[in-house]
Write a structure and sequence with these properties.
single chain, about 170 residues, alpha+beta, 6-stranded antiparallel beta sheet, about 20% helix
Length: about 170
């Protein structure tokens, strides 16, 4: 027994609407993902502080750790103080294989003077001025200090060479 039934045309009319809804939802999903990426991206993962005492100047210095003046950076927890590009004073310390911390070597809570350079005291930077604050070379902070030390980026280039830059 053969029955002659007409095709259900309502289902054919729903198909384009379903496609349109899917494409519209796909556009919203893509827009949401792009917005989430834009909001979550940062130029720099390190915390930067607007410090009124220390100018924010750009520099890049490549250090060969095989040279005697930088050889202290071959072993962890052995910080050194250096001056690069004429007048940029840095405190640098190797933390582990391939990981270094570099800090601006001036007291972050004082205007630059003859006593405002930090000296290395163990694993701390000590301010030579009246306050005598001790800044941790691991965190860059000191107790009762308004501003932390200014950190710089360090990139390991291989062959005992690193690049310190801002």
């Amino acid at each position: 027994m053969l029955t002659n039934t007409k095709p259900n045309l309502n289902n054919l009319y729903l198909f384009p609407q379903l496609i349109h809804s899917f494409l519209l939802m796909k556009k919203f999903l893509i827009a949401f993902v792009l917005l989430a990426l834009l909001v979550s991206c940062e130029k720099d993962s390190n915390t930067r502080t607007n410090n009124p005492y220390i100018p924010n100047y750009g520099f890049s210095a490549v250090l060969n750790l095989n040279l005697p003046s930088y050889s202290g950076l071959l072993t962890p927890a052995n910080p050194i103080a250096i001056t690069v590009e004429g007048d940029i004073y840095l405190l640098i310390m190797k933390v582990s294989d391939g990981q270094f911390y570099a800090w601006n070597g001036n007291c972050p809570n004082q205007s630059p003077t003859s006593c405002s350079r930090l000296t290395i005291s163990g694993l701390n930077g000590k301010c030579g001025c009246d306050d005598g604050l001790l800044y941790s070379l691991f965190t860059g902070t000191a107790q009762n200090a308004s501003y932390p030390m200014i950190n710089y980026r360090v990139e390991s280039l291989g062959n005992n060479t690193i690049r310190v830059y801002n």
